[in-house]
Amino acid sequence: xxxxxxxxxxxxxxKQLFNALSKNLKFFKDPxxxxxxxxxxxxxxxxxxSLSPFKFHFYLIKDxxxxxxxLPGGYILVNxxxxxxxxxxxxxxxxxxxxxxxxLARHVAKQIELxxx
Length: 117
Prior knowledge:
mainly alpha; 12% strand; 3 strands
């Protein structure tokens, strides 16, 4: 058991990391696709997360590979390649729920804490 970095610090790290990565990522900015992703993500949060220290942000990355990842502080990024591989909304919901869980479990914060020991 160890002390985690503060939520405030985690949010700062997440924003800094997102801004740094954004310089090298190509975002998919289709309004309908983004609205769909955000609606599904926010529905999962509303139905499954009673309390969260983070406001979640969902983004689509223009990349054909099957990948999704989360950054500290509530950033969830999904590659457009995920949409080519999934068969239905339930699979996408599972992927988003998985990434949301990484944030809520503060996995990156724990790794940062371990690196600073």
